[in-house]
Amino acid sequence: MNDLTLNELATLLAVFNRAGTSDLNNAEQEMLTRITQAHAEREELESMDFDDCLGGACKL
Q1: So where are the chain's domains?
Q2: Integer distance in angstroms from the first to the last C-alpha of the chain?
Q3: pLDDT tier at 39 (50, 70, 90 boundaries)?
Q4: Residue 25 CB partners (closer than 8 Å, separation 6+)
C-alpha cells in the first residue's frame, strides 16, 4: 500500500478547507474524517523520537 506523506495529507486537508466543508455529502465527509485522522497519526509518528522507545518504553 502506498501511504501518503505528511505533506501530501496536509495538502489534501488544505484543498478540503478551501473548497469548504459545510456541504459535503456522506462519502466526502467520511473521506475528510479519514484524511484528518491519518494526518494526525502521521504527524505523531514523525514527531516521535525513537531513542525514547529503547527498552519498550513506548508502543508503536
Answers
A1: 6-49
A2: 19
A3: very high
A4: none
